[in-house]
Amino acid sequence: xxHISYETVKELLSSENLGDRLRGVNQxxxxxxxxxxxxxxxxxxxxxxxxxxxxxxxxxxxxxxDLGFSSVDVIVTGK
Length: 79
What we know:
Elements: H1 6-13, H2 18-27, H3 33-44, H4 49-62, H5 71-77
């Protein structure tokens, strides 16, 4: 199994392939919570509803990170 890192997950999330993006969202769970929450912000803005749903589903576990914004801000404003 290839090494999961912030960079590899970010590459998957920017892929044109839906399967890659879904795999990237799932791999976020393997990263440090602060990194994961940062990458979820990318996935929440994805054009595909399945990717967005997977990302929002992870906010419950990663949303406790205090990075100066709330989970609601990410969902509502995309910031």
